[in-house]
Design goal:
The structure is a homotetramer.
Chain A (H helix, E strand, L loop, with lengths): L8 E3 L8 H7 L9 H18 L5 E4 L3 H12 L5 E5 L3 H12 L3 E5 L9 H10 L5 E7 L1 E2 L4 E2 L2 H10 L5 E5 L18 E5 L11 E5 L1 H9 L9 H9 L9 H17 L1 H22 L2 E2 L11 E5 L6 H12 L1 E5 L8 E5 L6 H17 L8 H12 L14
Parallel strand pairs in A: 1-13, 3-4, 3-5, 5-8, 8-9
Antiparallel strand pairs in A: 2-10, 6-7, 9-10, 11-12, 12-14, 13-14
Cofactor (chains A, B, C, D): pyridoxal 5'-phosphate
Organism (chains A, B, C, D): Limibacillus halophilus
Enzyme class (chains A, B, C, D): transferase
């Protein structure tokens, strides 16, 4: 067994540090998933999770991890051979693309350099050409966990609306839900995909589909052959707080606690907290003289920051040094970014001092691993945090320039 | 919140009573699923779960509940339009049938009265007619959770072999794995489906596919469009203890503990314990003058017992009375058995005194609910348990006749 | 490590089965015992524990186990050489006697046969002779954990009042508090001693002194040299929710939950539940043809039952057989009762089915150990429980005769 | 309930951050303290705790918090009217002094300025004058939790030996045991007092007396009237792993885990880790231009650092600001230091990044509270930690000068 003296710093961009309140909630005896005590639990989480997605529509809760909820979004609404439009924002967008292809969809993939979000203009441009409305869905990753870039979903919606295109809008919020502002209804999203192990502060094992009326109608008429992921099987029992097959009861205990915690803090405050920590992190990176991967300051992610290492320096060697010396896990570069970037998760159950421990660990690790940098990034973050303390709900005043 | 004075008796046939050791194991901080500490965990559970399935072949661990693993078995090996042979042993066999149909398979369903297991002779007879080998798979439920009937899988295998039929043999062991003897390799099964929340004593949220070389070959050449459930994506990372997408880390902690507990007791002793408790339960039922649903004593389930109520008595009213008066959850009649039977789960983390509390609760409940019966069932079980105590690994000497 | 398949039955008369809610409450991070979060906790438990003792007076909470709270009662109010009156009701009364002697008190010990409680008439008789009021305290054990006899404290108080004797009345409720009706104020008790590990359902490690104004006045003027146990050091900080030295914070989390659970059920219902379980147990013992140690039916303990084994049979051998065969811990005979009686704890977090498991374990154990008895005790308890079910708050209608 | 986003930083010098492994160990069902499973536990912790005290002699484990173990040391060995020599090293030495007086001892208190440890020369000088050997014990606090000063116990012993004085040497290690090197046998200590909630990383509720043969002999012949604290009652049952009255079972589970964790890391490594963190903290304080309370660099505490605020600045206001803004608890100035110093705990379950979070919180707090200081303390600690990383077992090379 690995020896930890003190707490491990789990600063990958998810799974995130699960707070004790949630772990303790999960650590309760499993109950009959067909009994009245469960029914109360089921009704509570099914109602609560809608508030987190900011929707009046149903949210499906799967006893499965996030990748499954991607698949669910696709197989409920789309048929083999359907055309979908995706944008290459990073590794997870690419994986979703690959999944869509494997499920028999025809994917158009708007190319990208993994340093920017979905370009609403490019979406508009492509849809404008699709006079026959052969494109059935536009699929975007809200927060690209591999790059630390947050796409502007509301603007994508506007672009679609401007073209009066009937395609469904599907959005992956696995690493933004409960961390970065997201509004399923207000932004007109048809299917939002979420997961438990990031902003919701739960262990992995639950995932979500928030669905609009339009998506539901599409599912009723079409979709692929499906069973486990089928929405309609879920919706009936869900009305009474039940599920059609065995739910992941203990994770639902945790979900109930997570919803309570987010609402005790207030969603707006949760978002502001993440924004402040994102900004502090970026200022540290800038002070070190390193590059934030994200190129557009409108798209900085407040959930994680991907940092580019200078040429000739291996990000994985750096990460291994940090793990060895300081018992902190940082996120690796994924796909084509492997070895070139590392990622700092600053989302979920988190606060100023955990962030300072994290940034200190990065700065010390840069020294240990011999990565050229300037001292003082942690100091600068500290200055920023001190200057904005007690003001966490306010818009940060200082924003580092891209 | 429901008030419990003392412990709830969760005597449905799963989810079962999760022991404290496992709950505490789960209640540990989530770790980086791409780091070295996880790798040790992953390698440990991937090796250990094979021993539980009694196989040298790979076992896939899904971060999803058991219904998903059914789907995985079908979509990896079979193609839309393929013919499969199933047997109507009860509600879960019927649900699996329904799932297969929804996935586009052509299902032949050997009819049954829900009181017997799969008839090996009927399988042989059907396969004998299938000279063209259009039947691609025979799918059986090992232990029908809805009826308390355990099919004789080894005999089904023999019947298939006798016909030299190349169909794959797929078996659902969701409610038998870790409770009733099951041998994936020795019995020549191609895909075994399992779940976490029964004999493995875990909360729901993990499920399994144990796969033979033949099944793997079938999957490599064919199967349906799939992504989340795809075996080949799993097998590569699994070799090093990793998973292709985020695993349900905390449930894997629990799985590691569950495997340790089963092996500390010894699988043979686990099976003998369940056999003894099954027998004690059936003797109690017989003493009450009630009918065990299972009609063939070779097929009695040692994991649960379904009990038929006399005509004119509602099993659900009886169950509600037991829950109200004694804080015990019993299993309901499912599908066409609703209201006619109740089910006593006696599997998982269980012992003689928990069984006696359970049977006393049933006997008292029969009185409270006005169900005609003879007193003395609990007494008879007690006599049986006392007479066989200290001898739990031995074959029970007395067996009630069907 | 000991292997448990299923739950251990901890049926000693304390420590009792700690419910999950309380274990989980304890399993929270320790906090600063001088900070505002602690202050809320401290204020909450200091107020709540008074309600459990049914007093308006202060209750001292010691970070120490129950034996310490005995000592605290004595050293705060009495001086070396003071005379106290005690009654030999069993092993714990004898231990308290021994402690008093070691602390330099002169103890008069009203003899007893360990089968009856404190005789109010004997107390009255002795006090009547004490014209000079040299007796400074009367010390009684409310519920003798070694014998299963509950003394009639209100009658002792009346006897003292009738004699107009100014001695303090000190009562040990370690194994009755939260299980058997007890009223510190209404019964005019001066110091009540309590502990955490019985009716309060907590692990051992906390103990209590509920103190009357008269006791407080005595302590202010006198008492022995003391520091750790000193009441006055406690009372000041307690007013604000704090403690003069480091409190057992995590057990206080548990205490807060325990108070909540007792009040959710309602203290009257808690007492009625214990009364019903005590009666069921005694009926079982009578059916077995064994003897309840307690000789006076007015003094039957509803928290535990001590059972006399026939001559020539060793109660410890019986207990060892039960532990080995059924994983149940029963209480041993203590002091001069060693080997002659065993004790069944039926207090704390408990319910009908746990009781039936317990009684079945005893009955089966009697068989295994070859102790002569009649079958049917568990059956009789079951009949009694069924006939009184749903009526737990009512006075049990049937009471076995002594 | 207080809302925490992320983990609270509990940086008082005890209770310390309880690691999850220990909390989970405590969160297990309580067992029969007279049964065989307990016996294994008892034997294990009684043997293990000796290794932590570095003694071959018995160690008494009390189910009571640390203040009680002080009292136990005094009442077992000393009689009312005995003379003891103590040294005024700070608040806890003063409290122990007060306790001794209340117990009827005559205390000579070598005066001190609360910025230095026990002066071995002063002890020698006083003992030299005590030709009649009226001084029965010399009582020292090893690590003064109120000041961050570690007395040189081995030198005190040498001073006593040089005078050939037979007084017992009693040492309080409540805040040093398991953090700062301490050798009960090698240093010739007669009674060592310890507690659970500091270096042992447990919640409060256990305390210890490690006793030499000489102390045991003194206790057998003398001591005060006592019962709960009596050593001889403990030693008999302890030989078999049992206790004379109900032990704090669940905290013993935690103790077993704590001993395992300390031994997995290695006591020498534990001490080196604390030394490195102590040094880093002092360098930070020096960089801020603030004063470490401890005046003698030989006596710097590696468990905590007390920091003097400039005149006119209230340490409690500073602490409140830190708690409010950063959810970190720092230790207050105690007794005459109230408002003048704050204390940083850097002991127990701790690591580099937790320390950096802590020091960042202090530095930001100094800004928020308007305490004059120079920026850069956290930066300097970070530089020190980076330069000594991977070398935690080595003697720190740089030590700040007093």
């Amino acid at each position: 067994m690995t020896l930890h003296t003190g707490r491990h710093f789990l600063q990958i961009p998810g799974p995130t540090n699960v707070p004790d309140r949630i772990l303790r909630a999960i650590d309760r005896p499993t109950i009959d998933h067909r009994g009245p005590e469960f029914q109360e639990l089921g009704a509570s989480v099914l109602a609560g999770i809608r508030r987190i997605f900011q929707t009046e529509s149903p949210v499906i809760i799967y006893p499965a991890s996030g990748t499954g909820a991607w698949e669910a979004a696709l197989v409920n609404c789309l048929s083999s051979g359907d055309r979908v439009l995706m944008a290459e924002t990073g590794h997870f967008a690419s994986l979703w693309h690959k999944m869509a292809q494997r499920l028999g969809l025809k994917v158009e993939f708007i190319p990208g350099d993994w340093r920017r979000g979905v370009d609403p203009a490019a979406v508009a441009e492509r849809l404008a050409k699709d006079k026959a409305h052969t494109i059935k869905a536009v699929c975007c990753v809200h927060n690209e966990t591999s790059t630390g870039v947050t796409s502007r979903i509301a603007e994508v919606r506007k672009a679609m609306d401007a073209e009066r295109h009937p395609a469904l809008l599907m959005v992956d919020t696995i690493s933004s839900l409960g961390s970065i502002e997201y509004r399923h209804d207000a932004w007109g999203v048809d299917v939002t995909v979420g997961g438990s192990q990031k902003g919701l502060m739960l262990p992995p094992g639950l995932s979500f589909n928030a669905i609009s009326k339009k998506a539901l109608a599409a599912a009723e008429k079409g979709g692929m052959a499906r069973s486990f992921w089928d929405w309609s099987d879920m919706l009936g029992p869900n009305e009474k707080g039940f599920f059609p097959y065995t739910p992941a009861t203990n994770l639902l205990y945790g979900l109930q606690e997570a919803i309570a915690m987010l609402e005790e803090e207030g969603l707006e405050n949760v978002f502001a907290r993440h924004a402040r920590h994102g900004e502090a992190t970026r200022q540290a990176v800038q002070s070190w003289g390193l590059e934030v991967l994200c190129q557009d300051e409108r798209e900085y992610s407040d959930a994680l920051t991907a940092v580019v290492l200078p040429d000739g320096h291996d990000a994985d060697a750096f990460r291994a040094a940090v793990l060895e010396a300081f018992d902190m896990s940082l996120g690796s570069g994924l796909g084509k970014l492997q070895g070139r970037v590392f990622r700092i998760g600053h989302l979920g159950s988190f606060n100023d001092l955990m962030l300072m421990g994290t940034l200190a660990g990065v700065e010390m690790g840069l020294s240990l691993a011999g990565v050229p940098h300037q001292r003082g990034g942690a100091q600068r973050a500290m200055d920023y945090l001190a200057s904005t303390s007690g003001n966490s709900a306010a818009e940060p005043k200082l924003r580092v320039k891209a």
